Amino acid sequence: MRAVTDTDLTTETDHRAGFVGLGGRPNVGKSTLLNRLVGAKLAAVTAKPQTTRHRIVGIVSRPDAQIVFVDTPGIHTARAPLNTRMVAVARQALGDTDLRVLVLDASRGVTSEDRIIAREPSLAHGSVVAVTKTDLVDQNVLLHVCAEAAALVPDADVIPVSGRTGDNISRLVEVIVKALPAGPPMYPGDQLSEQSERFVASEIIREKVMEQTREEIPYATAVVVEAFQEHPDRKLLVIHASILVERASQKGIVIGDRGQRIRDIGKAARLDLETMFGCRIFLELHVKLARDWSKDPRVLRELGL
Ligand SMILES: Nc1nc2c(ncn2[C@@H]2O[C@H](COP(=O)(O)OP(=O)(O)OP(=O)(O)O)[C@@H](O)[C@H]2O)c(=O)[nH]1
Ligand SMILES: [Mg+2]
User: Fold this and answer.
1) Residue ranges of the domains in the chain?
2) Is 163 in the pocket of ligand 1 (CB under 6 A)?
């Protein structure tokens, strides 16, 4: 035991900490916002809706506050088992936060889906609305969307931001910090996320698969890291990953003509993995038929869903 000093008392009463959920419809820019807020690429981002499938944590630590951001899958009307699980993950993750940020897309305005989602129990009592993608609209449109957002969630702080350019992000952070409960940090100050390196690697690869395929393929694929071997002194990481497909016909599409597509996916993923892990990467990708994996509770569980 040790004597309580003035410094301890100041720290305990002034420090704020909490979990802050980022929720909203698919494709509004939640993951881009998470990556920008944390200053690291933790979540996969693609132009296609329903990119995020898991709860993704990103931690911001400062002397006066620790904000644990929780990125979530987009909430949508889900019928298929994978989608149902994604929406359940989003609701559960948002429900377990201290503060929720409803994310809206300035370039789309407030849509009927946004109106339904704003009333979700998991997002209700959200006192902050982030209207993102402000770089895509002019000032008049932005004012209009912010007014609609304010009417949608009365008493909320409506903050226009751009996840892409970083515009007004510091204002969003200040508003969030003010709304957090007092409390000590929950994670070590240098911890950025909760996800394992294997998971981060699988998401980087999945992002490239989703970006480089079309129609049903982005939704019929998943990535499993089979091996993740760090060489001594960490100059090289050897990663073996399987890209799961649901049907035999999808295998050839992912592999591409004479293997071109899988090579492109591998190259793009390797470059991002090297940046992420700060070392050379040897990446081996393998396309594996896991028939109807997205409907199989066992596989979904293995994928953490
Ligand atoms: N111009 C612009 N584009 C953005 C911004 N934020 C996100 N985007 C783009 O919008 C698309 C969707 O972004 P995500 O961050 O993946 O959106 P999300 O809400 O996480 O989507 P889901 O994971 O599918 O729910 C991508 O093409 C992003 O590059 C922004 O501030 N400005
Ligand atoms: Mg996302």
Assistant:
1) 6-179, 197-302
2) yes
User: What is d(CA 130, CA 41) in angstroms, rounded to the nearest whole number?
Assistant: 19
The pair of structure tokens assigned to 168 is: 């007004």
- CATH homologous superfamily of 197-302 equals K homology (KH) domain (3.30.300.20)
Please name the residue whose Cα sits nearest to atom 14 of ligand 1. 29
pTM of the model: 0.95
Give yes or no for residue 121 having a pLDDT over 80: yes
| CATH node for 6-179 | 3.40.50.300
35 CB under 6 A from ligand 1? no
Q: What is the pLDDT of residues 133-169, one digit of tens each?
A: 999 999 999 999 999 999 999 889 999 999 999 999 9
- What is the 10 CA–ligand 2 centroid distance (Å)? 37
Q: Would you say 48 and 210 are in contact if contact means Cβ atoms under 8 Å apart? A: yes
Output Rg (C-alpha) for the chain, integer angstroms. Answer: 21
